[in-house]
């Protein structure tokens, strides 16, 4: 987003990816409330940063659905352009979330990340992402304020 004479902070540019970390799905392939809370924080970030790519990361398929695919479908269903969403469907751990997200960020030309996960997970995730060579310019957790398990309708 170019605005003449306005220098936007790194959080609002196409060079900064919004990275939402997955959380295990139910055996039926549905998102659990903790994942929905992370995803909602990613959704709000995507609305606030309309030029930023969104990476959803998480494998661990249940009933033929990966965490990343479930998150991507929900974001599209709630108005985020599919072209902005990049799915990383192989990760089975936070270390892999970081490593595979770093590869994806390199491929799409993103040089920094807004990292979104749960509060009890953020320190470890931040260390893993930094170890993978990712410049994390901001972190966000959904745990600061209570959220409904279904902020925009049924959990998918």
From TrEMBL:
UniProt organism field: Nocardia yunnanensis
Domain of life: Bacteria
CDD domains noted in UniProt: YdcF-like (cd06259)
GO cellular component, one term: plasma membrane
Gene Ontology terms: biological process: Gram-negative-bacterium-type cell wall biogenesis; peptidoglycan metabolic process
Protein name, per record: YdcF family protein
Ranges where the DUF218 domain occurs: 17-144
Lineage: Bacteria, Bacillati, Actinomycetota, Actinomycetes, Mycobacteriales
InterPro entries to which the protein is assigned, alphabetical: Cell_Envelope_Assoc, DUF218, Rossmann-like_a/b/a_fold
Signal peptide residue numbers: none
């Amino acid at each position: 987003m170019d605005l003449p004479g306005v220098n936007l902070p790194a959080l609002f540019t196409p060079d900064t990816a919004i990275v939402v970390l997955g959380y295990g799905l139910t055996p039926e392939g549905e998102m659990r409330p903790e994942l929905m809370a992370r995803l909602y924080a990613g959704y709000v970030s995507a609305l606030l940063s309309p030029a930023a790519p969104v990476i959803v990361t998480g494998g661990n398929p249940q009933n033929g659905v990966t965490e990343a695919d479930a998150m991507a479908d929900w974001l599209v269903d709630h108005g985020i352009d599919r072209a902005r969403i990049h799915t990383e469907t192989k990760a089975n751990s936070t270390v892999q979330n970081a490593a595979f997200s770093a590869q994806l960020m390199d491929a799409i030309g993103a040089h920094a990340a807004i990292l979104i996960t749960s509060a009890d997970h953020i320190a470890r995730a931040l260390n893993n992402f930094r170890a993978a060579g990712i410049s994390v310019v901001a972190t966000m957790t959904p745990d600061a304020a209570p959220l409904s398990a279904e902020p925009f309708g049924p959990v998918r």
